[in-house]
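Consider the following assembly input.
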Amino acid sequence: MTRRRFHGSVLALLAATATPALAQEAHLSIGMAAPITSLDPHEDSNSPNNATSRHIWDSLINRGGAAENKPQLATEWEIVDDTHWRFKLREGVKFHDGSDFDAEDVVASLIRARDKESQAFASYTRNIAEVIAEDPHTVVVETTVPDPMILNSLSRIRIISSDYAEAGVAEFENGPAAVGTGPFKLVSYTPGDRIELERNDAYFDGPAQWSKVTLRLVPDDGGRLASLLAGDLDLIENLPAEGVTRVEGSDKLKVVRGQSTRLVYLGMDVARDESPFITAKDGSPLGSNPFKDARVRKALLMAMNREAIVDRVMQKNGTVAHQYVADGFFGHSGKVEEVSYDPEGAKALLAEAGYPDGFALTIHGPSGRYVNDSEVLQAAGQMLTRIGIDTKVEVLPWSVYSTKYSDGAYSLFLGSWGVNTGEVSNPALAVVAGRDADKGTGRYNGGGINVPEINTLLDQATATLDEAAREPLLQQVSDLTFNDTWLLPMHYENVVMGAKSGVEFTPRSDKYTLAYEVHGSTE
Amino acid sequence: MMTTLIRRAIQAGFVVFAMTLIVFVGVNVIGNPVDILINPDLNQAERLRVVQNLGLDQPLWRQYLSFLHGLSQGNFGDSFVYSKPALDVIVERLPATLELALCAMVIAIVVGLPLGLYAGLYPERLSSRLIMTGSILGFSLPTFWVGLMFILLFAVQLGWLPSNGRGETAEFLGARWSFLTGDGLAHLVLPALNLALFKTSLILRLTRAGVQEVVMQDFVKFARAKGLREGRIVLVHILKNLMIPVVTIIGLEFGSLIAFSVVTESIFGWPGMGKLIIDSINLLDRPVIVAYLMMMVVLFVSLNFIIDICYTLLDPRVRLDGKG
């Protein structure tokens, strides 16, 4: 709501200063930091693909910038019973090729996304048992189990025209199948280079401000920055840290900041009795795994000067984290103790736990996967050394690291989770819940965390539809995880973008850059 | 000549075959593509389904055999990342790389050869010394730095040329090319110059060294004594005799321009194949890596063959079948 009001006021301001009104010619060029892999909206689920598909297609539910559920192609919905949801569809909506949108399209799209061989959207569609069109403007979604996350899931799945339910990837990329109901129509797609879009004047929520939008794929940091400086691009994602001063110093450009939901944390091996990368300082076996002791884990966290890491290493492109999600997101708990930097206290705790002289440790992390990941890990290593833990740092390419860390190869490792649902159950199920192949929990639980209370709470939360009853369960998950320091929360990555001074955009927590939400002027 | 061609083709076949083996084993050693490609939210059953769909549940030798089987029918397999035939993924980026490499090579030859001739014929002149000093800069400055400087100077400060991307394209021979439109040409200038810089210096220095060697030889002295015009001596007697090493280098460098212009392509956001191969290695997209490397083997073998034919044209003593 606040966002809408904000945009409203920007528009009012624009009208008052007699800058171009809505339906005029205006061109916007956005520099995307990661290339898309496909224009088929159900083929692959990664943020650049999903952000791009939101320009052309709509979903039943509109996921807002702060992860709230709002109507889009569904105008209202109700819970029929534990496993049935009824959605009223918006009437009078047309696809870009002029055909009418109705319940058949919803059925075709949800089933197509569920049954695609790539299974990219399986985490959203796995609970969909059946989709029934009751009449042309009503659908009922039947789930296999009570699924409290179904609205979020439906916000992820784009609704394509049922005419193209059988179409393959090529038909989407070369045009004919790429017709949606969204604010922009596809003009052309050049792999590795750009996507050209034009305004859908008949968009149900009002036409976009931009008659023509170019999404440029510029993964190279230097190239993206240079294009902004040269005026070729109006808005760029991931403004590199080296460019911040330059952009701030220019009166034609500005830095746009926002907080994302990507949590960066350090995980610890808390399962094994002896951990492979922990030894006594002389290299002999230590005979125990110190990370099994909650006092040692807390000492590690107290050793971290996270303010300094965020300020210097991350160049303010992060915000110190204390739990899964920041204040305002679903499942954030007020009862999580915020541990601050205290090296002396950390040493005392280590001594109390029986390690007065510390031990030797090798920590691992990826390089180039997260913002300044290897630098963050090096800083963390130095801070651990300062409390008496002799720490060596090893970084590996993501293609090597990704398998090993989730399989639990390391003693202390850098991990990260983009909380794309904006609530606690998503990261907790993947990273902290006990590993269970059948339930699909704990896939990225590389430390072997297995706390029965947390597992039980998560089981309850994933089966509770009532949001009011669900939130306290998730808050308890936050309390248990972080008050016992099962993870060392480091920071949330910030969204840092560069823009021309006249461009107005509020970064979204999912990091999608949506031209429809960009306003202002590119002059 | 025909027998040579066939022999070369057989050799190429062996190299390609060895390469597919190396890539298959190599990619598996780096890491498991499954962990990179599959959405982290998937549960075990869904994961298994994708793995089976990609054929990664089979033992490596069986994956390799089914790859060979597909290959015999001209099918390189589908890209893991782009979900379409690997060859299509590569071929749709081929025109961009080709035109960039060609432009850079033309610039390098047109600038490097005359300057090298000049510097070799008149080594004592101040202008020759300047050219030689310039060429040292040309091949010692790192490409990425020069590229960024070009962008800063011509795009950011002066605003004459676009900084990034391929610009407008026009259709020709079924592919889209930049050099046919004004906007496309403007986009092409900086990356082509950037790529050409090193090659120009290389050709220049090679030519100069060649000239200095040939100039001292008896037949040049004799031609002078016979009273031939200087222009004819330079163009026919000197140039032709120093071309063999130059042609070799041009051929090989052209290959490397096509295959490995990753740095320039990244800095200038040029959607070519060099960037594709690096991305594919990072994502362990094996079908694309294999198909790409196979194409490159064929490319280099063909280039070498063309170079050999050029030798016979330049030097009548050279025989391809080794009989003469």
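DSSP finds 16 helices and 20 strands in chain A. Ask yourself how this observation constrains the way the partners meet.
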